[in-house]
Structure formats: structure tokens, C-alpha cells
């Protein structure tokens, strides 16, 4: 009889285990859209993060056509490495990276103007890359819009739907230029001064403060925002963005996310009484201001340095989190990025366990409210090495965390909406 009881217990345990696994699988199936579109990148290789040389671009003004047409890269975020006049108001510009090897994220930003109004054509050429970013145009450095497609020509178009092979080898753009400079850039310019203006503006609210937590290679301050309304708000979120300079769409979603958490809704006010939000909105100000494709001034991809902490930017956040661990329970971490299309990179519940389930519940909530755009999920089942921020956050601070990627060309109004919805759904889950 004792044996029968033991067998019954073992059967029940096995059934419970299966049920748990099936529930977990059902959650993932329910939250994961149909497999289509961009599937994400493969596993990240471990790379050294000790300083590598960076080639600084020459800053100045190029003058052509008897000094009637001018180009410059001499401003925050500028990237222009060479210009040639080909005749008949046609110009070729060259864009090179800060060092190699490097992710193919060919950032460019330059101003062009003429002594008298004329139409010019510019060919964008790249070092070991293709034309990833569709040109944005501005006259004031604040308001940008995509170049009219009538004035854009893809040269040697790529193949496929996503990835660098799908991009054209070169791009040719036609501009109506005047005495007032026009800015041509890969994405909107959100340099350190503009981000600081946003941070200072939000800090006018009585429950928002900001302060430096470290310095970069070029001695720029690494600013952190602290959103805290209640003295007893001991649960905490850690939010970071812009480890990679060109990834502006991730920043824009993060901006909306933080503005929603800092908003005047009843939900946000209640949330802030129980939760403190820490935000590093610009992790790589040196790279952003110097117009880098990917790296900091140490020549390193910061999101590969969350194991060895050879770079001052990652060390600053690490030291900050260590100092806060004694007083706060970190309940969620988000690292905003950009890539070819919207995608989530959570930790698989196989390694994150029940604690990681909230990330999938969050994705599910966002997806249900925004069914118009399917977003794929690529979960990692590796915790060693930590290397990237998401994994470091979970392993060292026990916080469920995710890399939240937005597409390069995701409509800007949708980015704002997605950031808002993401904040609302996270507040709902954490307040349950």
C-alpha cells in the first residue's frame, strides 16, 4: 500500500510539472506573434572590450564650385568624412566608421548650403557598408522629416526584406538648397545637449531630479534621472537607452515611456508612490556627439561590456546599481535599442524562471493593445557570460529585464504610442 501511495505522489508531481511547462509554453505561444518579418540577430559573440583606437573625423567646411556650395560636419552629431564635386551640381560624400570591425550602422549627418538657390544631387557612399538609413531633412536641427521619395534614388538595390543585404549599395538624393543650411542626417538629431534639455525640462516636476553618476572618455557627464514621488517607494526600475549612437527610434520610444511614467494620470501617481524609476537616457554621449556608427570613444560596443566593465559608461551604471541595491528592490529593467524592425529580446523563462514571466506578460499586454504591428520575440536561454545589459541586470540584481528594440523606420507616431502603452501595461502589472 505504501508503494501505491508513493507511486500516486510521483504521478501527481509529474503531472504538475507537465502542466507548469505547458502553461509556460502557452504563455510564450500567446505572446509571440506569427513567425514573420524580422527574426532578430543570432547569439552575440564574446568580444574584447579593452580600448581600441578610434579615428577622429576632420571637422570643418568643404567649399566647391568656385566657393558657391558648402558642406560641413562641424556640429554635434555630425558625420561626414569626405566630399567630391563631380560636375553639373553632382556631389559624392563618403561616410566612414570610427573604427573596424563594426556593426553596419552607417550614421551620417551634414549641412549643405549655397550662395544662391539651386538644385543639387548628392550620392551617399559608405565604407564597407550599404545605405541603411533613409535620409531625414531639417532646417532647424529640431524638426525632421523623411526626404520626399521623389528625390531619393536607390543605386544597386539589395535583396530581401530586412538586414544590410536588403539595403541599396548607394543612395542618391536631390535637394533644393539655399543660403540657409539644410541638415541631412540618417535619423533625427538627439545629441547630448538636446537630451539634456529634455531631461532638465522633465526635471521641473517636483518628483523628478537628475544628476551625473559618472564621466565618459571625453569627460562628458553621464546623467541619470530619478523619478520618485513617495519616500517609501523602495521598488525600483532601471531604464537605459542609446548605448549605440544611431539608435534614435529606441530613444524616442523610451522618451514616451518615461513621460508616461512621469505623467499626471491617476495610475502614474499611484505607481510613483510605490516605485522609483532610474533612467540613464543617453549611455553613450561621446559616440552620439561625435557621430559614431556604434562605439564609444574607447572604440567599444558598450552593450558587450557588461561582463568586464572596461568602459567608464558601463562601470558608472554598475557602480550606481551596486550602491542602490541595499535600499531598493529592483523589479524591472529595460534597455531601449533600434534595429531593422521592432523586436523583443527577453530572457527565456527556462533560465529566468517564474520571475521572468512578467516580461512575457508585459509583451502580451502591449501586443493585445497594439495588434496593428506584429512584433517578434527572440528569447535568450544563456546567462553566462552576462555581457549585455539585460543579462547583467537579471544575474546581478535579480531584476526581470529585456532589450526593447524599435525599427529604424517605425513611424514616429507609433513609437510614441508604443512607449506610452508599454509604460501603462508595466504599471498595471507591477501594481497588481
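Sequence proposed for the structure above (432 residues):
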Amino acid at each position: 500500500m505504501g508503494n501505491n501511495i508513493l507511486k500516486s505522489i510521483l504521478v501527481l508531481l509529474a503531472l504538475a510539472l507537465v502542466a507548469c511547462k505547458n502553461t509556460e509554453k502557452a504563455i510564450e505561444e500567446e505572446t509571440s506573434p506569427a513567425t514573420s518579418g524580422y527574426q532578430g540577430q543570432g547569439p552575440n559573440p564574446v568580444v574584447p572590450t579593452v580600448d581600441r583606437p578610434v579615428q577622429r573625423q576632420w571637422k570643418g567646411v568643404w567649399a566647391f564650385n568656385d566657393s558657391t556650395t558648402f558642406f560641413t560636419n562641424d556640429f554635434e552629431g555630425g558625420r561626414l568624412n569626405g566630399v567630391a564635386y563631380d560636375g553639373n551640381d553632382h556631389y559624392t560624400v563618403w561616410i566612414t566608421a570610427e573604427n573596424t570591425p563594426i556593426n553596419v550602422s552607417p550614421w551620417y549627418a551634414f549641412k549643405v548650403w549655397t550662395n544662391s538657390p539651386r538644385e543639387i544631387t548628392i550620392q551617399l557612399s559608405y565604407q564597407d557598408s550599404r545605405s541603411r538609413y533613409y535620409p531625414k531633412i531639417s532646417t532647424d536641427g529640431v524638426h525632421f522629416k523623411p526626404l520626399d521619395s521623389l528625390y531619393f534614388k536607390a543605386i544597386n538595390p539589395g535583396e530581401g526584406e530586412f538586414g544590410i543585404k536588403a539595403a541599396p549599395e548607394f543612395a542618391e538624393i536631390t535637394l533644393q538648397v539655399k543660403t540657409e543650411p539644410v541638415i541631412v542626417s540618417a535619423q533625427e538629431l538627439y545629441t547630448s545637449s538636446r537630451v539634456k534639455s529634455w531631461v532638465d525640462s522633465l526635471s521641473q516636476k517636483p518628483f523628478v531630479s537628475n544628476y551625473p553618476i559618472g564621466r565618459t572618455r571625453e569627460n562628458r557627464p553621464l546623467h541619470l534621472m530619478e523619478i520618485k514621488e513617495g519616500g517609501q517607494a523602495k521598488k525600483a526600475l532601471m531604464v537605459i537607452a542609446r548605448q549605440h549612437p544611431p539608435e534614435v527610434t529606441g530613444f524616442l520610444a523610451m522618451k514616451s515611456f518615461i513621460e508616461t511614467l512621469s505623467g499626471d494620470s491617476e495610475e502614474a501617481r499611484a505607481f510613483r508612490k510605490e516605485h522609483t524609476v532610474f533612467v540613464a537616457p543617453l549611455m553613450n554621449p561621446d559616440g552620439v556627439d561625435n557621430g559614431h556608427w556604434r562605439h564609444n570613444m574607447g572604440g567599444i560596443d558598450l552593450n558587450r561590456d557588461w561582463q568586464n566593465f572596461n568602459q567608464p559608461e558601463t562601470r558608472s551604471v554598475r557602480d550606481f546599481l551596486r550602491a542602490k541595491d541595499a535600499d531598493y528592490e529592483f523589479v524591472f529593467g529595460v534597455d531601449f535599442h533600434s534595429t531593422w524592425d521592432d523586436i523583443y529580446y527577453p530572457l527565456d523563462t527556462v533560465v529566468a524562471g517564474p520571475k521572468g514571466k512578467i516580461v512575457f506578460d508585459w509583451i502580451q499586454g502591449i501586443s493585445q493593445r497594439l495588434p496593428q504591428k506584429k512584433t517578434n520575440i527572440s528569447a535568450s536561454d544563456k546567462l553566462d557570460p552576462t555581457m549585455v545589459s539585460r543579462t547583467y541586470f537579471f544575474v546581478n540584481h535579480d531584476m526581470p529585464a529585456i532589450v526593447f528594440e524599435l525599427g529604424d523606420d517605425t513611424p514616429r507616431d507609433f513609437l510614441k504610442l508604443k512607449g506610452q502603452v508599454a509604460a501603462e501595461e508595466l504599471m498595471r502589472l507591477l501594481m497588481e
